[in-house]
Write a structure and sequence with these properties.
single chain, 0% strand
Length: 69
């Protein structure tokens, strides 16, 4: 019973993280297309940095847990 709750929590956490990533990526693309980053360089640095850090965390996780990369 405890293990099934842990698996459900892991799956839900993964889905929330995956959704957050694609929402942030879509927001970044939309802001880039509309030219908001030409007006606000701090927002550019923060949003781009957050997306890059999330990508690096995913790569390090995959390298540690699998032999894919």
């Amino acid at each position: 019973m405890h293990r099934s709750k842990l698996i459900v929590a892991f799956v839900l956490g993964s889905l929330v993280s995956f959704s957050w990533y694609f929402i942030a990526l879509a927001d970044w693309v939309q802001d880039f297309k509309t030219g908001i980053y030409h007006q606000n360089y701090i927002e550019l640095a923060l949003e781009t940095g957050a997306i890059l850090l999330y990508n690096l965390a995913g790569i390090f996780f995959l390298r540690r847990k699998t032999n894919l990369l």
